[in-house]
Amino acid sequence: MEAVPARARVYIACATAAALICLLPPPDAGTDWPALTLLAALYAGCERVARSRFVGMSSHPAGTFYPVLLAAAFLLPAPAAALVAVPGALLSHVERRPVALRRIWRAAQLVLGVWTAARVHQVLGGRDAVVTGDCPHLLGPAGAAVLAFCLVLALLDGGRLAVGAGAPPTPLRQWGSVPVRRAWRGLVARSLAPIAVHGLAGLMMAVLWRSPYGPVAALLVLLPMCVSWWAFAQYHRERAAHQATIRALVQAVDIKDGYTRGHSERVGQASMMIARELGMDDERVEVLRFAGILHDVGKLGVPTRLLRKDGPLTPEERRVIELHPEYGHEMVRGIGFLGEARAAVLHHHERLDGSGYPYGLMGRQIPESARVVAVADAFDAMTSTRSYSRARPVAVALAELERCAGSQFDPVMVAALVDAVGRAGWCPAVTADDAHTSRVPPPGAPASSRPGARR
Questions:
Q1: Rounded to whole angstroms, how far apart are CA atoms 80 and 59?
Q2: What domains appear along the chain, each with residue ranges and CATH number?
Q3: Whole-model pTM above 0.70?
């Protein structure tokens, strides 16, 4: 069960208190109760299906039925519109404990978002435009309301991530393991586009609701949204299958090479940090994370006795180990979704001066993805305890990377990692060699002067 820090509980309590205030005063006699009841029931049903049938995707902006909530914001006074979200949030399926706290948080977040959107829409005269069907004047207030809704959700989510900064990281990094300076980064950019699409659907629902065709016609707007939601769910399932495949490969490597248990995940995390520091888009960042995770998958083709050998390797044994990039490339060559990650698996041991393997590529001949993973791999190798070397402090490892920049490593990638670690620190989700950190190198086993020489 995921522990929730005390500060996060206080934060949720404050958000809940604010949500209760938004629900007051209660809807007056002029409230369209049939519309409120129907919208609340519709949202509750859709939310329940979304969160129970498509586990793991419901937290994504495209994985829930915001059109119903935004239609309520366009149709009803703010307290009544906010009330629409409560039953669905409190009855929705929750994947992780504590269930009650997560439901309360979800309800408070949606109440605040919908209330704000409804108030903005009303102040800008949007409700009158919906009633009259004045199309040109509908878009401005509706767009402002959608933006307000998105900003409130992002603000609250960022606060949830920041309230426990400095506390021990949690498994999903959901309850306050993100530094304050990074808590809100990218939240609006990631959610604005899908929420804007939902807002357009909600506006169409509201206009049709107030038209002579009535609520039945308004509900038809949800049909294309259901189709797109189903397509998104299929994509999510396919992506989950891809990740399961990767996890299986990595677990096989970890079992075979016990000294590097967790190494692949940490290299993936460091590769992701470098990619983000370089300003790569989210899709490419994800590909480079896969590249880091899979970079050593070729070790499955290397005899286990060589991977676990405590003493120095003979030249023949080293040549066998140096075949693992080619083995790995053969294993992942047919996995289309990996993209440039496949090149990283093949070339992550190439060096800028041409002294690397398997092909002795130089400089820009080495794919960019491989140059990223090479730095991430060497960094984790130096900061982890191996059978042949002790773990070095992070600062020492970074200094060694800077010393070798230009000859062994791409200086741009090294600088990106130094900046990323300097700003965010190095707190890998998988701790360094949990089962082996206490093991020291045997007498006579030399530590190479080159970073991560035996990898």
A1: 24
A2: 6-220 (1.10.1760), 237-424 (1.10.3210.10)
A3: no
